[in-house]
Amino acid sequence: MKVKDFVPFKNWVVVGDVLNESKSAARILRKLHENGYQVAGVHPRGGGNGSDSGQGTVCVKLADAGFKIDVIDLCINPGAGLDYIKEAAALGVDKVLIQPGAASQEILDFCQGNGITAVEGCAMVMLSGG
């Protein structure tokens, strides 16, 4: 599977600093929303469980997204990212797009061992047709 193969999946959660517009996670969340995806953000330190950022719900946990998640976009340091990948596995999410800098061998090994398709790449490139 390649990054472009994620385009047809319309229910996304972006994990990272989705409340800071200068961060990639916030820009990805906005761009997915603008392109018609059902999207929620997960901010590790909160930001309002179920609050609306103007571009989708911002939650503390994946389980609070309010819809069945097709893809998780991981935009967070690998140490924190592994916990979200474990939560994703428990929820039955089987696809993760890992942004540059968010991958670790531990995350990749966990995904492989738990039936999660993990692709390293950039959502912004995917959304621009690249």
Helix residue percentage: 25-40%
SSE order in H/E notation? Answer: EHEEEEHEHEH
Q: What is the subunit arrangement here?
A: single chain
Q: Numbering strands along the chain, what is their spatial order in the largest sheet? A: 3-4-2-1-5-6-7
Radius of gyration over C-alpha positions, nearest whole angstrom: 13 Å
How many distinct helices? 4
Q: What's the overall average pLDDT, rounded?
A: 87
The N- and C-terminal alpha carbons lie at a distance of: 15 Å
Summarize the biggest pleated sheet.
7 strands, mixed
Number of strands: 7
Low-confidence stretches: 49-53
How much of the polypeptide forms β-strand, as a percent range? Answer: 15-25%
Give me the secondary-structure category: alpha/beta
Question: What is the overall silhouette?
Answer: globular
What can you tell me about this protein's structure?
This protein is 30% helix and 22% strand. The chain contains four helices and seven strands, in the order βαββββαβαβα. The chain has a seven-stranded mixed sheet with strand order 3-4-2-1-5-6-7, with helices on both faces. The longest helix is centred in the middle third of the chain and has 14 residues, at 78-91. It starts with 10 loop residues before the first strand and ends with a helix.
